[in-house]
Design brief:
Number of domains of chain A: 1
Order of helices and strands of chain A: EHEHEHEHEHEHHEHEHH
Strand content of chain A: 15-25%
Radius of gyration of chain A: 18 Å
Strand order of the largest sheet of chain A: 1-2-3-4-5-6-7-8
Largest interface: A-B, 27 and 27 residues
CATH topology of chain A: TIM Barrel
Oligomer: homodimer
CATH superfamily of chain A: Divalent-metal-dependent TIM barrel enzymes
Chain lengths: ~280, ~280
């Protein structure tokens, strides 16, 4: 695999450097030579997303995506409608921010079957597509690791995400592929190829899987700290035609407790050598 | 689904009631009307497996299987040979105990690729099959949840286990299906059918998936405490021709701290109402 020569495709999710507010993140990412930022919605709370978008664009960063929409399944109709309304707000926020894409963590409800949750996901996305058309916002379905099938997403493989895109059959629905969720899958290479051929491959998220993993949610590794063969997956993704950003998305209690300037240095070093 | 009418197919793994030694487990399971026991190898340490097998058979319990063999992948040849030798000891133990089957947790090594680990699994099983033939011991490959793909098993779906059995093509190699590992899989119904049609479906393990799950290894739920539709999976398994034991295998720090007599009562209650 060709080594990464520069930082032109490096994007960082604001959640990765959780202790930093949006202004600090913009300033620090820019100073470090990072080129893209994916903004988590918590960073927009009680803020004007348009102004933040302008700050991002002035800084020279690309606002790669807004994280996250989704969480459509619920056992009550009221909660399903609330989720749809919240996704509509996310679409407005994304448009104001100036990004073209929202990442969807589709959701699941442990009180109902996976099939029922998948139906709610399909119907929830379909319900907000007119809003996406108005705002020119794309939705990237992120398949989540099967350990999140109970409560975070009933879409757990790239095959399922590709199938969902086929079923929705809409130019504003695609896929976000995250190595953390997908690395174990024996069908990964085939489904990445299919994802690219279908024109669905819109985002590529990177981090690593640590051994042992001590927390189901917040113990992701920096690239190189774990067992995921990131260069191999990057090769498949590029062979499938992907030319977008490499987005560093790390939830880590361990790294969040560290000095964030040192962490940012470590991210850039790891990006150059481990991806 | 037809409700469970009696305990004739109820088996418990000794690890489920971890605080009890083998004699206590035998006595308590029998008194409660349980009919099968799967013995974990730790319960045989420094003991004569033949004598323990005789006690089990005298008690009226069926020794359903020995848990566990496997862990074949390793980055050094020495360690791979050690694993093969250990599996040979497990085959001897199983024969002495009087059970017909060993459950395999196949293993994985985070320092090498999944493909390499899968090759070691194939070759490791092939290496011990002559011992299985001598002792008339069957090996049941247990696909493990993808959250264990780094270090416990590179076989993470029922499809992979079925494929592995196809590739090994030996009458002493089959599958152990555990709802905890497999419940999330959109291909589950199809692969259970295939597993049955191929004659591979030899064991059925039950427990539940809790929300939230707070530990990757030891936070399994009692049947009914989580989101797995056990009656649905049992229906698929029975439609596939399975007539064996329903084996309760729960690793739970929470339940291990409870009074084990109360836990056993709760298992039997849950078995009658939630499976």
């Amino acid at each position: 695999m060709t080594p990464i020569r520069d930082l032109s495709k490096l994007c960082i999710h604001t959640i990765t450097t959780k202790p930093w507010n949006i202004e600090t993140a913009i300033e620090k990412y820019c100073a470090a030579g990072v080129n893209g930022i994916t903004v988590w919605r918590q960073w927009l709370e009680n803020r004007d997303p348009y102004k933040i978008g302008q700050e991002i664009i002035k800084s020279g960063l690309t606002p790669v995506s807004l994280c996250r929409g989704g969480f459509f399944p619920a056992s009550s109709l009221t909660d399903r409608q609330k989720a749809i309304d919240d996704n509509r707000r996310a679409i407005d926020e994304a448009a104001a921010l100036g990004t073209l894409m929202i990442v969807l963590v589709c959701g699941a409800d442990p009180r109902q079957s996976l099939e029922e949750s998948r139906r709610h996901i399909f119907e929830g996305i379909a319900a907000v597509l007119p809003d996406c058309e108005d705002r020119k916002i794309r939705l990237a379905v992120e398949p989540l690791h099967p350990m999140y099938a109970d409560s975070r997403s009933a879409i757990n493989t790239l095959k399922q995400a590709n199938d969902l895109c086929d079923d929705l059959d809409h130019p504003l629905v695609g896929v976000a592929a995250d190595v953390y969720h997908l690395w174990w899958d024996p069908d990964l290479q085939n489904e990445i190829r299919r994802c690219g051929e279908s024109g669905y491959l819109w985002a590529f998220h990177i981090c690593d899987w640590r051994t042992p993993t001590v927390d189901l949610l917040n113990d992701r590794g920096l690239m190189g700290e774990g067992c995921i063969d990131i260069p191999q997956i990057r090769e498949w993704v590029e062979q499938a035609g992907f030319e977008g950003f490499h987005e560093v998305e790390i939830f880590s209690n361990r790294w969040w407790q560290a000095d964030q300037d040192e962490f940012l240095k470590a991210i850039i070093q790891a990006y150059r050598t481990e991806c």
